[in-house]
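Section 4.2 – Deliverable D4.2 (structural model, holo form)

The reporting period included a commitment to supply a predicted holo structure for the target in complex with WT7. Inputs used:
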Amino acid sequence: MTQAVIESILSEERLFPPSSEFAQQAHIKSFSDYQKLYDYAKNEPEKFWAELAEKELHWFRQWDQVLDWQPPFAKWFVGGKLNVAYNCLDRHIKSEKRDKTALIWEGEPGDVRTFTYAQLHEQVCRIANVLKQLGVKKGDRVGIYLPMIPEAVIAMLACARIGAPHTLVFGGFSAEALKGRLLDAEAKLVITADGGWRKDAIVPLKEQVDRALENNRVPSVKNVLVVKRTEQAITMKAGRDYWWHELKADAAADCPAEAMDSEDVLFILYTSGTTGQPKGVVHTTGGYNLYTHITTKWVFDLHDDDIYWCSADVGWITGHSYIVYGPLSNGATILMYEGVPRQSNPGCFWDVIEKYGVTIFYTAPTAIRMFMKMGEELPKARNLSSLRLLGTVGEPINPEAWMWYHKVIGGGCCPIVDTWWQTETGGIMLTPLPGATTTKPGATTFPFPGIVADVVDLDGNPVGEGQGGYLIIKHPWPSMIRNVYGNPDRFRRTYWEHIPVKDGNYVYFSGDGARKDADGYFWVMGRVDDVINIAGHRLGTMEIESALVSHVGVAEAAVVGRPSQVKGEEIVAFVTLENNFVASKQLEQELKQHVVAKIGAIARPAQIRFTEVLPKTRSGKIMRRLLRSLAIGEEISGDTSTLEDRGVLEKLRG
Ligand code: WT7
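Output (structure tokens):
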């Protein structure tokens, strides 16, 4: 972040208070109401959460203890029994919501399917029975590698219903990446589709699953359940692979929801960190259900007649928490869209909003910047007047994009909630409450009630007003990461040991840099670790480097992020070659393709720079700061005294 950006943040004077019209109908109606909730939650956290848990969720059995905190391991609602699928479906079909639309799905080639709560419940029960019939038991992990089709939601809820933790792998990840995740999670079964639609082309999902599993490379996987979507030819391995629609037709339409322990694992979701291997973030049942439920209700100010659309993919945490679990637990009508804006259909998002009368729209800054580039004629040619609230997530939003979103999409009258959170936090942590908080373009404003956040230095001391520091969370919260799957050491090291523990107080280290301005608003500046954010997708530089060095021609690789107008950041890779390899355009293409094959298209480097040497400190650490400067064409400044070989800089420039 440049000095100019920092100064503009600290002097931001544009204020957007909620309209009285919005505030009056909102769940949280004023800033003083927010402050009362915040103070109550801070002073009496266990009472605050217990009261909400009792009021907002159905429990088969009450908990004995609200919070058991053995840092850094937390247990919420200890002894309580519940089922997330029951809270998302069964309790609604026992109410007047039975025939309410739960899910509207608009498919890529224009097909539409809708499900009432009763219909969704039946589908989920049938698939839950199919899973059982294939030998999936409570506690067994199920891999889900599906496009944005209703079956993804059905599969997740079916797993939740029988207590089998799911692990979704985004359909844009490669066979290699899929294999790594299935291996780590020791998945017993994989649910996939013959293919998925992506920008007028087919992604061969089943073929990738076959490749991931070939030569029994993931021995834990016994079966593959295949949804028919694109209908192209695939091979079905006898005894291993089954068609979803065939087994579903024979399955019973009734399947009781398993009474899960509050701390039973609901899902594992892999995300990038600072090492080469993505980590399996573990989320459990009770706390996650409660936190995503209440944040959906208050942050999006959800009401019964809303048509709610979150444009994320279900394969990311945003899709888990704010397409599926949070909204369905509230009995909302959710919209799911398979398409992505592209040359042949640039206005498709606005068509969807107009067609279904979407009232709440939640998307990412990278998408907003892309829409800005496409021009405001597209949204202006549609009737977007149904919208009443806009949200953004995934990376810092630049004030220009915020203003565009506000004016062009929101017609100048929709509140914008800029929500900061992470795969690890499970739910939204810093956010405006739309009827209560005066927003500033680019600020995530204040912590959600129950969240105690601060900006500190490396010793854990709060930094002064306007100063940069590390964003940390001080008190456990219900949807917090419980562990890194199979690796408690990594869990402890990554999140709890960066900031020294004082008086037994552990603080959660987010990996983000932030500032608080004179009014106490939080501004998130971006990652401070070796994680980069490409179009709202999180990737570790080490992960991409490992992919590059696995190519025979590559000796060493160093990857940095470079600012990009639309994507936020893009990847620049510095590569040294083995002796018998020569730099060429063709090799550059080959290496890019190699990364795509190893990780997926989201990790394709924008540029590969061949170099003879990489700048290192005397202890052998690659000096990324220098590479970052080189990547954006900046003059090298600052301290280079630790450079092992000062001639390296000259060579790199040349
Ligand atoms: C990282 C988490 C959970 C949502 C999707 C991404 C960045 C997320 C914001 C925001 C500034 C943001 C952070 C964070 N981030 N939301 N509103 N303002 N930065 O989840 O893949 O776990 O990535 O996304 O850098 O650490 P994720």
